[in-house]
Amino acid sequence: MIQNMIKGVGVALITPFKNYEVDYDALGRMVDYVIEGGVDYIVALGSTAETATLSLEERDRVLRYIVDRTAERVPIVAGMGSNDTRALVDQLRTFNLSNTVAILSVVPYYNKPSQEGIYQHFMAVAEASPVPVIIYNVPGRTGLNMSAETTLRLAHASDKIVAVKEACGNIEQMQKILDGRPDGFLVLSGDDGLTVELVKRGGDGVISVAANTFPEKFCRCIHKAMAGNIAEAESEMQEMEEGINLLFKEGNPVGAKAMAEAMGLTTAEVRLPLVKSTEGLSEEIKSAIDKYDLR
């Protein structure tokens, strides 16, 4: 059952670069590192992967590489989003999604559609997708918020839409979704720091940035919360708070890549229009790694 494959901790995997090209050796290290760290599944080609800067050919090769390197150790979700519904529908019919269990599809950005437009977009995506769909609400990136009412309307309208990654930052909006969701529909956090609170209220896990860099600590915390050990999980989350905040201080994945470089996993290189972390942030990250034993 797909819902059992996407509970717990999914990692929104970064795409390592070297001299502006995808560094597949480092990508392989990242795949092994997060799996060994305890993630339950990998999300490839999300916003954290800088997918907007990858060509279609690069996206295909990156996904195929992750599928091969993972070797069925954990499930894989593929990011497939656009602000052009027709183009995304066409892509879903041709893109190689074999060996993926679902897609993660973001609310259309820049166009600022109405709630009805969001609904119609995701219904078209669900009809075209060969695999189940996780809808993704992230107002900080898209410029608009998918309401709880629209999320619930989609959840009840299509069996293909199986979960929401909710990064609105509003726990009460998340609660409305929890209260009104149909059986089997998952609510996943898109904010690392809110995950324990969401799980405490009945949520189903997280698609995480932090799991790129300190997966063992982060996964242990969330798995404790999922098992009902909320007090322990809250304490452990508090210990990770500074490290998590640093990942987002200069934007994502800038901080995640700076921390990955400090840990010897890959370079901090990003593609324009993103730029590498400042020296100040890099020093803060190195200090936090040692202070909180994040390695």
Describe this entry's structure for a reader.
Helix content is 47%, strand content 14%. It has helices spanning 2-5, 24-36, 56-70, 85-94, 115-128, 139-142, 148-157, 171-180, 195-200, 215-226, 230-248, 254-262, 279-291; strands spanning 8-12, 17-18, 21-22, 41-44, 76-79, 102-106, 133-137, 161-166, 186-189, 205-208. α2 packs across α3 and α12 (254-262) crosses α13. The longest helix has 19 residues, at 230-248. The mean pLDDT is 98.
Could you give the order of the helices and strands? HEEEHEHEHEHEHHEHEHEHHHH
Alpha-beta classification: alpha/beta
Outline the biggest β-sheet: 8 strands, parallel
> What is the CATH C-level name?
Alpha Beta
CATH homologous superfamily descriptor: Aldolase class I
Number of strands: 10
Report the sheet-strand fraction.
5-15%
If you compute it from the alpha carbons, what radius of gyration comes out, rounded to the nearest whole angstrom? 18 Å
Instruction: Give the termini separation.
Output: 34 Å
Q: Helix segment count? A: 13
Compact summary:
This protein has about 300 residues and is an alpha/beta fold. The chain has helices at about 1-5, 25-35, 55-70, 85-95, 115-130, 140, 150-155, 170-180, 195-200, 215-225, 230-250, 255-260, 280-290, and strands at about 10, 15-20, 20, 40-45, 75-80, 100-105, 135, 160-165, 185-190, 205-210.
